[in-house]
Amino acid sequence: MKKIFYIILLLLSFVSCETKKEHPLSPEFEEVRALMQTDPETALLKLQSLKNSESQKPSDSATQKLSNSATQNLSNLEYSILLAEALYKNYLPQSNFDDVKAIVDYIETETTPNSTLIIPDYLRAKAHYYHAVGLSERENIASACEHYLKALEKMSEIKTLDNEQTRFLYLIYTRLGELFLNENYCDIAIVKFRQALKYARKLNNDNSVAIILKYIGNVYHLTGEVDSALYYFNKSLNTCYNPINNLDVEKNIAQILFKKGEKDSAYILLKNNLDKIEDYAVKYSYYTLLGEFYYHDNKYDSAIYYLKEGLESHYFYTKLNATMRLSAIYDSLNDYEKKAYYDNIISQLFIKNINKNLDKTKLQDIYDKYKNHKNEKEILKNRKRIYVITSMSLVLAFIIIMLIRHKYEHTHKELINTLDSKERAISDYKVKLKRKEQKLSEIKMKAEINIDLEAYHNSAICQKILNRRPTDFTALSESELALLLEAADKNLGNITNRLKDKYPNLKKDDFYYICLLLLNIEKNKFQYLFGKNRKTIWERLNKIKNIMNISDNDDLHIFMKKLLHKI
Length: 567
Prior knowledge:
Helix content: over 70%
Oligomer: single chain
Number of strands: 0
């Protein structure tokens, strides 16, 4: 069984050999990471204070930061990503864009199996995410999309998500949804927003849920499904009070109300909210929308006033929309000089954003490439899963087979031992049975043997011998001795043969002595009957006693009489 155990361990280690060991995150940033969610401003200040310390002093180049020991590399890498995160959460431009880009380049080019630095998947995902943020700031939409998707890909490697990682996934899906929505890829945008909604609900964050519900409403608004749009806008408003989110939602509701002919309600909703707006980007979007409403109502003076206010926006679509409406108004008023002025602004906006527009055409290709890559990864993952399952099944099958084999061998051994024991028992029984049979046979033979000592004594030859007077004693002849044996066998159950079986060393002459002993002939008369001297007779009798294992203290006459019924 020990061999089985070691084999199993070997197989399991083989199956799990691809597990990678990541370096733990730098402990000096624990406080910063904790503050990032609750107080990003303080987190940024702490990072900036670390900037001048020896351990975190930036190198002359981003590449040099990644040339030290694995631990130092990870510390430098994490510092740059945390700084980008802190800048992002404080609504500041990404001043360390080059550092983040260098980290992303390093991540994409380093070979993990041979590298001393194994970067956690979560940190890889954050690097791609904040690089995408920097690219978005530089209006490189296609590349930003690519890195958002890579961030998503890295997060898919994490099996168990903590609260921070769940929120991070919410952010990725939200940014992707915004990106695709802005470029009118509504079918992709709605998928991303619904994913973001799932993670927002996991976080139990009503504010995040409200924001995503607004975005879903925006998708339906853009596709012309105004009833669905209103449903999600109202749901967003009822979920959580967030001034910025609510202002954006109510602006969209005002648009729908205006299109449905409820113009007064639309005007009132926008104008009532204008005084509440502190964010100029939101205020400019309100101005532009009010200008649109007045434009459609042919109230050109009011339209021009609000549209010119909207021109102050830094957002391309807000500014473009305001400019196009002003051009149309002056065209209607036959003021071609002003129309030409705004047409020129429109041209400049398009020229400025031509690269961005060209970039947009890549989005579908990038997303398709991501989906194909994801599908390929899923196929590889499924293959790996099948391999693992197959390997584990083989291991399990091997274990079962070995256990069955072990049990069979144990059972077989027990069976053999049982059979051996039974065979021994049977053998012993056969021996005992044979003995019993022999004993029964002997008993049966004894029962069948007719021993009649009296008849033997009364036989003619025995009477002849018994009736001899001392003076008549002469040695018995061969014929008389033969008659004596015949009479003994006839009346004493074939005694000579039985004695011969029991005592094979007895001679023929010994039987003559035994027959005379059974007649109670005194030993001193044996010398006359056999014609031999006393010494010879006594030696012969002693020899018979030895053959029959008769002790010297036992009387030979008595022994022979007892022997008749024993043999």
